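Backbone-to-sequence.
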């Protein structure tokens, strides 16, 4: 896309952002990592002194988030203020992701229960999104909505009926794989990258039957193509980038992105610096280039934003939670189920994005897109209407 003259001033773009429907199609820690209070910091310090790992403290920390929001007016205000500063209407949060298979089901149930508790505590300001009407209601009433999604299918194990169970709990979007192999197929950083398994075909059929969005963000290229062939509903890429620009294994080819759009799908662009630039010091212009490129490939009606980033690089987790530097991620010798090789995949702390440090900086993305010449109508599509369209078509 050739650069155009800005049609809105930065002030006008911020005003548009403030009143538009804004959807972050992938904001993983919206309930688990969007609050960091003094009591949470003290808990981490105590666990660090005991030699405990981040993996061990995580469930305790998640439970403390709910207690803080229930008991502390300051915590409630801090959490809601972050939402307000972001200007985001709806965020898709991840409630099951990579990890030991033996723990996946329990973790997913616990995190969904936590989300329900948070929504109950903040019912005047927050709602759980089950339908497109809920998204529209959140925007109309000045509330914020949370979409429950999975970034892996591990919590289903080998039981298709668990998909029904989680749907009843509010699950509305499922990424078929994370980076590594599971029962559905291969992820994008697996050693050998095959396609969809026979079981994976049945998983997609059940997702279609229940009107749950099929997400291929971190699937291998072949799993992605297979999903497009099997699914009877549009398929989404909730958060990725253009491989033609960054060359990153997490990014998608132009051919795949075009096929997603041709089948009525959606492509959300990340702001993770190492995913959108090979240079450690990324700029908002790098993010804009990916949006422009994907609009050229997919069309303006099929592109949006899935930031995949809550907090600063210093957190090491993408959340606002800052773990003590002496606290290890896991016990020595434990297998890393994320499938990321930090240096190779450009996830080390020197990779930073100027202009977006935390979720509160979300309006800067709208300003950058406006400065690149996107019109008000185009901005509204990119900010939320495109995701709403596919959500309405698939989920209802």
């Amino acid at each position: 896309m050739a650069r155009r003259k800005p049609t809105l001033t930065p002030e006008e773009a911020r005003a548009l952002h403030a009143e538009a429907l804004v959807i972050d199609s992938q904001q993983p820690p919206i309930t688990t990592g969007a609050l960091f209070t003094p009591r949470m910091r003290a808990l981490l310090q105590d666990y660090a002194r005991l030699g405990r790992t981040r993996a061990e403290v995580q469930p305790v920390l998640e439970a403390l988030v709910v207690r803080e929001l229930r008991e502390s007016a300051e915590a409630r205000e801090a959490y809601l203020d972050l939402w307000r500063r972001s200007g985001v209407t709806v965020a898709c949060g991840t409630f099951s992701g990579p990890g030991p298979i033996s723990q996946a089901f329990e973790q997913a149930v616990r995190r969904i229960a936590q989300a329900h508790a948070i929504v109950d505590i903040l019912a005047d300001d927050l709602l759980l999104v089950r339908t497109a009407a809920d998204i529209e209601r959140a925007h109309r009433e000045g509330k914020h909505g949370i979409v429950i999604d999975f970034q892996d299918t591990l919590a289903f194990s080998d039981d298709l009926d668990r998909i029904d169970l989680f749907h009843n709990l509010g699950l509305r979007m499922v990424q078929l794989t994370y980076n590594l192999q599971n029962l559905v197929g291969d992820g994008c950083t697996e050693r050998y990258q095959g396609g969809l398994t026979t079981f994976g075909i049945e998983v997609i059929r059940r997702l279609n039957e229940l009107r749950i969005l099929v997400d291929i963000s971190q699937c291998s290229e072949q799993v992605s193509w297979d999903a497009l062939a099997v699914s009877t509903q549009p398929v989404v890429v909730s958060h990725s980038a253009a491989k033609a620009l960054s060359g990153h294994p997490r990014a998608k080819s132009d051919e795949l992105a075009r096929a997603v759009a041709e089948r009525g799908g959606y492509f959300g662009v990340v702001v993770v610096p190492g995913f959108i630039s090979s240079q450690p010091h990324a700029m908002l212009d790098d993010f804009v280039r990916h949006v422009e490129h994907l609009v050229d490939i997919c069309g303006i009606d099929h592109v949006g934003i899935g930031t995949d980033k809550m907090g600063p690089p210093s957190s090491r987790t993408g959340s606002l939670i800052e773990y003590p530097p002496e606290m290890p991620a896991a016990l020595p010798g434990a297998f890393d189920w994320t499938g990321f090789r930090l240096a190779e995949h450009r996830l080390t702390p020197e990779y930073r994005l100027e202009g977006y440090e935390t979720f509160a900086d979300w309006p800067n993305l709208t300003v950058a897109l406006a400065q690149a010449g996107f019109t008000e109508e185009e901005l509204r599509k990119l900010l939320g209407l495109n995701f709403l369209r596919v959500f309405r078509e698939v989920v209802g």
